[in-house]
Specification:
Elements (H helix, E strand, L loop, with lengths): L61 E4 L8 E8 L7 E5 L5 E6 L5 E10 L2 E10 L6 E7 L5 E5 L8 E7 L4 E12 L10 E12 L5 E6 L26 E6 L5 E5 L4 E5 L6 E5 L7 E4 L16 E7 L2 E6 L20 E8 L4 E9 L11 E4 L5 E4 L5 E5 L5 E6 L4 E9 L9 E3 L4
Parallel strand pairs: 4-27, 17-21
Antiparallel strand pairs: 1-25, 2-3, 2-26, 3-4, 5-6, 6-7, 7-8, 9-10, 10-11, 11-12, 13-14, 14-15, 15-16, 18-19, 19-20, 20-21, 22-23, 23-24, 24-25
């Protein structure tokens, strides 16, 4: 794993930001893709061995509404246990919550963003594994083939550590990853210290064959620190998580959708230049915010706050997982809510009137907020699969917003995201990978 570092001699602006734009420097760790990319093109790594032996059993999933998720596919989860009663890991489960396959994370590690994707036309499984998820995390993005063997390990470039909020691969052989790093900046322009430690946020595209950084986006080059909703810490030496990037999506027009929890904003970003095209939500929204009949803005007059996982579902139509609470430094401690419960919101943009309208929402079944994590996945039948983040629940709503399925982990267990996606397992039975590599 790479260590967290700030590049020596980096230039700063008057706000003390490092001025890094699109970068084409080599990453410090090259990735290998045996059995997917021709061996001559890469330096192959040994594949991780399969095992069906005595790895620990993942936490049970109890169905509380319906009998199984009606949407087609299997559940992809990363059960994480705050009580240490169960192992952390990555799990495939049937729509009724029965284990199909489980990878146990090494002791002290957690997994995140586990799902099937397509790479060079072939099905793969991808996930992040590491430590300090949600903070200055340090981990690795892994790619497994359809026989549960590791074929690649991806890291952010430019000496940055690799964060676990998002890991996306493309059919062109690239990977989109996130990273956090620290720097010291002068925040006197917003009545802050002149030497405040801050957590900077990066989005990178990595060439999987070579490990080269093809694109690197530093939030501080494009967004003022003053747009943060996160209060400054009491000490200048405590890193201020002012942006907290948690998602990057590649849109059909080649541009990017980047989400920042701590500015309450989703950004559409030019995929070539890195310039912001528009901002949705937050202190400098490009759109006036409105709610359709039967829908409500939150107490701050926003559609969402402390949010995760924006997804484009149609022309000028998006969903966002709306947490509505965070707590001190995103810890959930001392949290206050901007709205009564978490929800997945559907938003329609009008580019002519510059209006964003909340047109629908799928609400947390118990009527509570989710102080961290979470996602919404629009299903082919028009329904929504929701992972409620720090809460132990997974839900499916039909196209009319009716709850048709709900399942839950034991108290203290959650999954960062939940997906319902097709996967053709090579063999029946609970294949498991033991801890370690």
């Amino acid at each position: 794993m790479l260590t967290d570092s700030t590049e020596p001699g980096a230039e700063t602006t008057e706000r003390g930001r490092r001025r890094t734009t699109v970068s084409r420097r080599l990453a410090t760790c090259a990735a290998a893709l045996a059995a997917v990319i021709p061996a001559a093109a890469i330096a192959a790594q040994p594949a991780a061995a399969d095992t069906t032996s005595s790895a620990a059993t993942p936490p049970p999933i109890t169905v509380t509404t319906g009998t199984s998720a009606p949407g087609q596919g299997d559940l992809f989860l990363t059960p994480t246990d705050a009580t240490t009663s169960y192992p952390n890991g990555a799990e495939i489960a049937t729509p009724a919550g029965k284990e199909i396959w489980f990878h146990q994370a090494p002791t002290g590690d957690v997994d995140a963003d586990f799902r099937p994707q397509t790479l060079f036309g072939r099905p793969v499984l991808t996930f992040w594994e590491g430590t300090n998820f949600g903070g200055l995390s340090d981990g690795t993005d892994y790619i497994y083939n359809d026989h549960y063997k590791q074929i690649a390990a991806i890291h952010a470039g430019d000496g940055l550590t690799t964060d676990g909020h998002e890991f996306r691969v493309t059919n062109q052989g690239t990977a989109w990853v996130l990273s956090y790093d620290t720097s010291t900046v002068n925040l006197s322009s917003i009545n802050g210290p002149t030497d405040q430690s801050v957590i900077e946020a990066y989005v990178q595209e990595i060439d999987i064959r070579t490990g080269r950084v093809l694109f690197s986006w530093n939030a501080a080059d494009h967004v003022p620190y003053s747009q943060s909703e996160e209060p400054l810490p009491t000490s200048a030496s405590t890193p201020w998580d002012w942006f907290h990037v948690n998602a990057v999506k590649v849109l059909s027009d080649g541009n990017l959708l980047i989400d920042a929890r701590d500015t309450w904003t989703t950004y559409k970003v030019n995929g070539h230049t890195g310039q912001i095209i528009w901002q949705l939500g937050g202190k400098d929204s490009s759109f006036k915010l409105a709610a359709a009949p039967g829908q409500s803005l939150n107490n701050a007059g926003e559609i969402f706050s402390w949010q995760h996982d924006p997804e484009q579902i149609g022309p000028d139509e998006y969903t966002v997982f709306d947490n509505e609470s965070a707590g001190v430094a995103n810890t959930g401690v001392g949290s206050t809510a901007e709205f009564g419960y978490a929800r997945v919101v559907t938003i329609k943009l009008n580019q002519w009137t510059h209006t964003a309208t909340l047109v629908a929402s799928d609400n947390e079944p118990q009527g509570v907020v989710a102080t961290s994590q979470g996602n919404g996945q629009r299903l082919p039948n028009g329904g929504e699969l929701v992972g409620w983040g720090i809460l132990p629940d997974i839900s499916e709503f039909d196209a009319f917003g009716n709850l048709v399925f709900n399942a839950e982990f034991p108290t203290g267990v959650n999954t960062y995201r939940a997906y319902l996606l097709p996967w053709n397992a090579p063999a029946a039975g609970g294949w498991r990978l033991g801890p370690g590599r």
